[in-house]
Design brief:
370 residues; TIM Barrel; 17 strands
């Protein structure tokens, strides 16, 4: 094929960058993938998403650089190329940290200007070299005001560095996001909303794991949209984020593609808030975690009874003494409608590897619409 004239190439590149920029600022239909899920990267149906997050890059505690383990280099470096085979317009982001990453290591890095600069510069370099369009911070479990102050500085300096890099390179600025809890208040510690709003393109609100089987003595939804009996709910958390100063247009609602399995004390007492002895490790993991694909299999194999509770907006099923709370199609559809009606930017799921034949992903995408 003959080479195209330079003006056409320049126009094409500019158009591509503009398309990606527009997609970054429009609706977010997001999903996380991580190699430890053992779900093949090439099997992701990227046509159901506008944004996909590759998780997780690590913080090297010795150098304060963002790094990818040798086991994950191949999948991370090819992530964008692979998911764009099915959907050339999908936007990819490199996520850093994760729930299992010690909060203390991020706190130490963020407490010093020099280590923050090393972290930031290495993250930008890594994202560019691997072909990602953005970066996502998943620093969890902050417990002190000093950590929140450091977080604010980190985000502000990160945004400045991203803008400067884009100006110097002539490229579209990288997207910058972060995953934070369902509420901006953790006991007496408050997230730095002003810095978050001014520095991030959006916040991925992790609106799940509000409750877990251990140590709760009763069955609960870990991600109820509403709770008429308390202020511990997804909707209330979103309201708090907005009240804190982060507009709804910068909030992306997260929901889980997994549930928790509990052991009922009495098989005949099987509703919400039924007495429980804790996680059902015979069905789920050690903490009761169970993917949606496993839940659908459990329902089929055990002729389990399924219930959608519209008051709390939760799904659950039970068979014998096993009780599983989860987000099924009705819950997902209702949550997406809630996000759209409240002016939120979109939604994301953790994680795509445990969907069941893409049922939940399709439900979410269709509920939001174009």
């Amino acid at each position: 094929m003959a080479p195209k004239p330079l003006p056409f190439l320049c126009f094409s590149l500019l158009l591509l960058l503009q398309l990606h920029f527009s997609a970054a600022q429009g609706v977010v239909k997001g999903g996380y993938w991580f190699p430890e899920s053992e779900f093949p990267l090439s099997d992701i149906d990227s046509t159901l998403f506008t944004h996909l997050f590759c998780a997780f890059a690590d913080l090297d505690t010795q150098t304060n650089q963002v790094v990818v383990s040798s086991a994950n280099v191949a999948s991370f470096s090819n992530f964008t190329t692979i998911v764009q085979l099915k959907n050339p317009s999908v936007i990819t982001l490199l996520s850093i940290g994760g729930g299992n990453a010690p909060s203390s290591t991020f706190a130490a890095m963020a407490s010093q200007s020099s280590s923050r600069a090393t972290f930031i510069d290495s993250s930008i370099s890594l994202a560019r070299s691997y072909g990602f369009y953005g970066l996502d911070l998943d620093w969890e479990h902050q417990t002190m005001d000093s950590e929140m102050a450091s977080l604010a500085l980190l985000l502000e300096e990160w945004r400045t560095a991203i803008d400067a890099e884009a100006t110097n390179s002539g490229l579209t600025p990288l997207i910058l996001t972060a995953a934070f809890p369902y509420t901006p208040r953790i006991n007496s510690v408050v997230y730095p909303s002003a810095s978050i709003s001014s520095s991030l393109d959006w916040v991925n609100v992790m609106a799940y794991d509000i409750f877990a089987p251990d140590p709760s003595p009763i069955t609960r939804s870990r991600a109820a949209l509403y709770d008429p009996n308390s202020e511990v709910s997804v909707s209330y958390g979103v309201e708090l984020w907005i009240q804190s100063g982060v507009p709804s247009t910068q909030l992306v609602l997260g929901f889980p593609f997994y549930g928790y399995a509990w052991v009922l004390v009495n098989a005949n007492d099987n509703g919400l808030f039924a007495p429980s002895t804790g996680p059902d490790t015979a069905v789920g993991a050690s903490d009761g975690t169970i993917g949606y694909d496993q839940i659908t299999a459990f329902i089929s194999q055990n002729s389990a009874t399924t219930v959608f509770n519209s008051t709390f907006v939760v799904d659950y099923c039970y068979a014998g003494t096993t009780w599983i709370g989860f987000d099924g199609t009705q819950t997902i559809s209702t949550k997406v409608s809630f996000a759209k009606a409240n002016g939120m930017l979109g939604y994301f799921a953790w994680h795509v590897g445990v969907d069941s034949n893409w049922v939940l992903s399709q439900t979410a995408s269709q509920a939001w619409g174009a």
